[in-house]
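Example record

One chain of 183 residues, shown exactly as stored in the release files.
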Amino acid sequence: MALDPDEPVSLDDAKAFCRVDGDDDDATLELLVAAARQYVEGRIGQALKPRAVTDVFDDFAKPLTLSVWPVDAASVSVGYIDADGADQDFAEFEVKAASRPARIILAADASWPAVTKQGQAVSISYDAGYDPYTEVPYQIRLAILMIVAARFDNRAGFLGIRSTEEPLGVEELLRRFRPLAVA
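Predicted structure tokens for this chain:
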């Protein structure tokens, strides 16, 4: 297994952080980097590596919130199934990519088209995620490295660390990247 070049932490970064020389542990470190990235994505609700996403909605409810952040606004396309059952493209929208979650709103002086009543009539396709090695904030990359090192040092499970525990300092590093809870 070779480490995906879109991972926000390289194999060389992980080896240096874990103080590993040689190639014997490369496969383990690659697995740990991918697992740590996925864990961090779940904790902060962000895509740390690029991916194509399609969100499906029953209709043009207001607002249409996108499931993955950050969003490349230029990549967003909106399609729908009209009331006659034909596939259509829709271009009279704006992307609020900076808001979290990102939203699709109706352009000024436009109206949402009628869609089929069968559900899943609106699809929004877009590219999401950070440019892996240049845009992922350093605090997030450090948190991934700390998780990798903790799991690497305890890969046999002898230190009594439960798999649900985070290394000391990870919570603090990730706190500012989590979405705010709105009551």
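Notes: The first helix runs from residue 11 to 18.
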